[in-house]
């Protein structure tokens, strides 16, 4: 048994450094209570019937204190009350930046476990230490001009800090909103131009923001429902004019914070304001005052806890914005406001791109798996093609083949410049992969076809070719995107392809429903497509390359397309024309520059527009219809006897998540016995679900899992079936109303007015 007696000693111990031998000599303090302690131990030992063994030094200090004692002057100690170390040769100066903030400060025994006493002393010292450390950073590490020991509570101040502060601009900003559904408030104090760069170091036009638009951030964040105490910003950076070379017309405001809680937990908060010149300043106020944030808990290396990631939005009100402007401090606050206003002017009113827009040298991967191109004649006599990649699996194990169906005129699966496209992924999983080049594809353009023709003739011909090679008992997994997804639903629900030949169906941003965002819906409602068909005449294939030798009709249509507003602008001529005609197919920041150049310069070089009138009928109906606009397909749900997966992008472009929501609900209602899944992937738009740089991490696993379950025979639903009443009450959390991700209640009216003004201007200029 161990017996311990705690008490005060005389605090007269000594630590002496022998300069000649560099040895440290320690003399322990005297313990006046030692005889009483021994007597108490002897009584206890006698009662317990044991023997008493004493330690070698009899009295031992288990929590050593002192050594750098606090004192009012150097003669009585090492540090002043603020923890600053005295200069030995002067009683009025201290070592700048040298502090003691641990148990060494305490000059005597406290009689109990000193942990809280040490912590209290450290907190007292840290109040001054943090202020001085910030001033040192602000001063960029310059040598102190004056070192003055303050005997009171105020820390010493370096005179040249004042000069540095004059070059900076101090900004206060308060934002409120919700993160992870919980109320959140951020109180920020920003020091702009706190980097190691002067104004003369900046070269305009390089895409790098001005030093006055970059800085350090302090303050705290309140999320009381998550952490009861404030989350203090211990390291924060802000850049009010960030430019991505992939989106040279878009301006970003980037906020990055490292937060610390009193519990010891740490969090990383990343925020971004996205300012996109969509219809000039139509959404400027909302974009400039909305911070899209992600809060992530920093987990320890050996922690097995689930990763915590919360998302939300913070907003700054008009009142708080005015307070921020009024409270600006610094001699350069006027220049700061001019630079910030100038960046907004360039973003929303002046079509001047930022960053580097140089052309890339394309280099396709020569190690891409070899393929065989099959030319197939459809039932109506039109020749299509299908590309086949054989499986890498050897032996008896054989998986069902996969048929890939592209969107309208743009490649989504076979990407020679990318290391992780879906074709490679499926081949590595052991699936033989087929890619259909239908009459929608630039390789097989037609001047007279509909999307119904793709579902009625092209898809059945491709599936029959696969069955011809592998046998009629073979089942095919189908992965389709956009219009390809609409076509496969037409094929199955129209009775042109039997569901018994389909092992599973995976559709991205497509289904038997076709729900567009506000701008795309409005464009389809306007008579733009009939006008385009009239302009094109008999040749309904539009060359997209800027260097193409085209007719005056094609040139006129491309000119009109360049004036049509689009969600995101691009410096590439071909991309601008395609997005003007069709709408933006992807968020540029999600795809690599090499893929963007390959798509625009080598892949989507022609746009077959003959099927646009049928596409317009489906868009205006909201679901798949035949070429006459009649509902010939949704009335046959009994033919959809197969497992389905519908995937949408959470940051919608063109097609909204309602497309997958309605399809998923339709299948659960009419085919409850089969397994049906729906996924919405945050951060993705339309085609970037399949061609994005992160698609292989965030999208492909859902498709592979769906296919794998079907291979294992898990095609039927498990558990309780859905009732019609339950499905009627089901709501889509991603539904944003009729106006899409960029819409508000007044948007359609504003859009109509702006289009009317634009058309009036065009008429005045050209006629």
Automatic annotation (TrEMBL):
<keyword id="KW-0274">FAD</keyword>
<dbReference type="GO" id="GO:0008203">
    <property type="term" value="P:cholesterol metabolic process"/>
</dbReference>
<keyword id="KW-0753">Steroid metabolism</keyword>
<keyword id="KW-1207">Sterol metabolism</keyword>
<keyword id="KW-0285">Flavoprotein</keyword>
<dbReference type="GO" id="GO:0016995">
    <property type="term" value="F:cholesterol oxidase activity"/>
</dbReference>
<dbReference type="InterPro" id="IPR007867">
    <property type="entry name" value="GMC_OxRtase_C"/>
</dbReference>
<protein>
    <recommendedName>
        <fullName>Cholesterol oxidase</fullName>
        <ecNumber>1.1.3.6</ecNumber>
        <ecNumber>5.3.3.1</ecNumber>
    </recommendedName>
</protein>
<keyword id="KW-0560">Oxidoreductase</keyword>
<keyword id="KW-1133">Transmembrane helix</keyword>
<keyword id="KW-0413">Isomerase</keyword>
<keyword id="KW-0443">Lipid metabolism</keyword>
<comment type="pathway">
    <text>Steroid metabolism; cholesterol degradation.</text>
</comment>
<dbReference type="Pfam" id="PF05199">
    <property type="entry name" value="GMC_oxred_C"/>
</dbReference>
<feature type="transmembrane region" description="Helical">
    <location>
        <begin position="745"/>
        <end position="766"/>
    </location>
</feature>
<keyword id="KW-0472">Membrane</keyword>
<keyword id="KW-0153">Cholesterol metabolism</keyword>
<dbReference type="InterPro" id="IPR036188">
    <property type="entry name" value="FAD/NAD-bd_sf"/>
</dbReference>
<keyword id="KW-0812">Transmembrane</keyword>
<dbReference type="InterPro" id="IPR029058">
    <property type="entry name" value="AB_hydrolase_fold"/>
</dbReference>
<feature type="domain" description="Glucose-methanol-choline oxidoreductase C-terminal">
    <location>
        <begin position="54"/>
        <end position="122"/>
    </location>
</feature>
<dbReference type="InterPro" id="IPR052542">
    <property type="entry name" value="Cholesterol_Oxidase"/>
</dbReference>
<dbReference type="GO" id="GO:0004769">
    <property type="term" value="F:steroid Delta-isomerase activity"/>
</dbReference>
